[in-house]
Amino acid sequence: MKLTLNNGAFELLDQKITDIQIALDKGLLNPETALRYIREARAELFLLRQILKNEVVIDNPGPDAPEAA
Given this model, what pLDDT does residue 69 score? Predict the structure, then answer.
C-alpha cells in the first residue's frame, strides 16, 4: 500500500493533531471542564478524518503487481 499526500496535506494533518493534543491537555489540566475539551477533541478528530479523506491518496496494488512483492 502506498500513501500519497496532496500538496499541503502534511501541514494540515500536523496542525489537526496539534489541535487535538491541545484540547486534551486542557481537559487534563482542568477536570471541571474536561467534558468540554473532550467534545472539542472529538470535533477536531472529525476534521482530521475529513483531511485524510480529501488529501491522502491510497494506492493499493493488486496481489499480482510488482509493488506487492
Answer: 55
| DSSP code for 7 | T
Indicate the residue type of 39.
R
Mean pLDDT across the stretch 19-41?
Answer: 89
- Are 48 and 17 in contact by the 8 Å Cβ rule? The answer is yes
Q: What is the DSSP string of 27-48?
A: HHH-GGGHHHHHHHHHHHHHHH
**Whole-number Å distance between alpha carbons of 69 and 64:** 8
Whether the per-residue pLDDT at 18 is higher than 90: the answer is yes
Nearest-angstrom CA–CA distance, 8 and 20: 19
Angle at 48 between CA 59 and CA 23, to 5 degrees: 150
Check pLDDT > 90 for residue 50. yes
